[in-house]
């Protein structure tokens, strides 16, 4: 599963934003795909093993077991702050926040909004990320910095249609 998810992403991001020879790019894609796949496999093995161990020790499985097993697995497998783990954690964080908000409404902890809150969320997220990009760029994840640089700075220089179709980072040596 990790290879299925990571390989296409790594392929696109590498050819869009990384420099180097074809061999270096292919090696980078393979390394990212391997790291993603390996980490997911290690995590699943750790999580499932810890679930089984807890259920065996207590004679049954309780909801806290999944939380504890995932915390331990997350610490052991994804605790190293590297680009692959960082992307996986950011992906999960966004989904956890959405799910937590839905659960809070379902459980009655917060009232059901009268209007869809998504437009406000979209406005706040985009406002914050562009403010961070403009004034505190170093705080953003490198691949997000690259994407935003491409969209908001590199796009100010145009040579021909290839800038839009391929990549517009070239010198004016024509």
From TrEMBL:
<dbReference type="InterPro" id="IPR019531">
    <property type="entry name" value="Pmp4"/>
</dbReference>
<dbReference type="GO" id="GO:0005778">
    <property type="term" value="C:peroxisomal membrane"/>
</dbReference>
<protein>
    <submittedName>
        <fullName>PXMP4 protein</fullName>
    </submittedName>
</protein>
<dbReference type="Pfam" id="PF02466">
    <property type="entry name" value="Tim17"/>
</dbReference>
């Amino acid at each position: 599963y990790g290879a299925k998810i990571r390989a296409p992403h790594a392929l696109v991001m590498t050819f869009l934003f990384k420099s180097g020879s074809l061999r270096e790019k292919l090696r980078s894609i393979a390394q990212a795909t391997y790291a993603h796949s390996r980490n997911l496999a290690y995590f699943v093995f750790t999580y499932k093993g810890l679930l089984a161990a807890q259920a065996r020790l207590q004679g049954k499985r309780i909801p806290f077991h999944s939380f504890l097993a995932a915390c331990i697995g997350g610490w052991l497998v994804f605790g190293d702050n590297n680009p692959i783990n960082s992307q996986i954690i950011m992906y999960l964080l966004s989904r956890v926040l959405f799910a937590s908000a839905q659960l809070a409404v379902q459980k009655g902890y917060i009232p059901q909004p009268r209007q869809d809150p998504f437009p406000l969320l979209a406005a706040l997220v985009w406002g914050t990320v562009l403010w961070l990009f403009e004034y505190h760029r170093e705080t953003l994840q490198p691949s997000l910095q690259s994407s935003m640089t491409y969209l908001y700075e590199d796009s100010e220089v145009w040579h021909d249609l290839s800038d839009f179709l391929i990549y517009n980072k070239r010198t004016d040596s024509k």
